[in-house]
Specification:
219 residues; alpha+beta; Pili subunits; five-stranded antiparallel sheet; four-stranded antiparallel sheet; 2 helices; 29% strand
Length: 219
């Protein structure tokens, strides 16, 4: 007996598709979820970008203070002649400028020069600069090498601790015997536009060396 296949009969409700309203509702839900997902992604990307920027700034700040500390550890009581022949003390500071003589200037090439170097720190056009002269007693055409250590800087504040343990806003503390005056410590605050003030205190070990030298001469 032959097998007869009959076409299945579905109820009308089973053959019914999506209505336009249902499609619109689904589309709206999809758009809302996409917007929320994009907003979350943007927040994550912005946070990552801000983290990377702050990490770079932190590394720049650490390098800046490392360079300054390396220079200040080598302070020596050696006065210089300025571009106009005026004698300048070993350390001068006030306002936004710090200038001093340091030793330990490396000379791997063996050039005929001193191992002493004149260094200055100052702010120009929102940048914290390190200035280094190739000679101590300068001529009128002597120009320093410039190195940008930090940007986004609005100013610098300096304080100097005298041998009497008194904080001063400028140095040297007096005109008498200014050629040998060295501060016991130097406090440097770099005022930034995004992080506020970055303060670091640098102790001057050369003060004890000078005092011991004077004591030996007197004996």
């Amino acid at each position: 007996m032959p097998v007869v296949f009959q076409k299945p009969v579905f109820p009308k409700s089973a053959l019914r598709g999506f209505t336009l309203i249902e499609l619109l509702v689904a589309l709206v839900i999809f758009v809302v979820l996409a917007v929320l997902s994009y907003g979350g992604l943007r927040a994550v990307l912005a946070a990552q970008e801000n983290l990377d920027r702050n990490s770079d700034r932190l590394g720049q700040a650490q390098l800046m203070f490392m360079v300054i500390g390396r220079d200040l550890e080598q302070i020596v009581p050696r006065p210089i002649r300025s571009n106009y022949g005026d004698q300048q003390p070993p350390v001068t500071g006030g306002g936004e400028v710090l200038e001093f003589t340091r030793g330990g200037w490396r000379n791997p090439a063996g050039f005929a020069r001193s191992d002493l170097q004149r260094i200055a720190y100052t702010v120009e056009d929102g940048k914290f600069l390190r200035l280094a002269w190739s000679v101590l007693d300068r001529a009128q055409d002597s120009e320093p090498a410039r190195q940008v250590l930090f940007d986004g800087v609005s100013g610098v504040e300096l304080r100097f601790l005298s041998t009497k343990n008194e904080w001063r806003a400028s140095w040297p503390e007096s005109e008498s015997n200014a050629d040998m005056q060295l501060p016991r410590a130097i406090e440097l605050t770099v005022l930034t536009e995004d992080w506020g003030g970055l303060t670091r205190l640098f102790r001057n070990t050369a003060v004890k060396i000078v005092a011991d030298t004077k004591k030996g001469v007197q004996q």
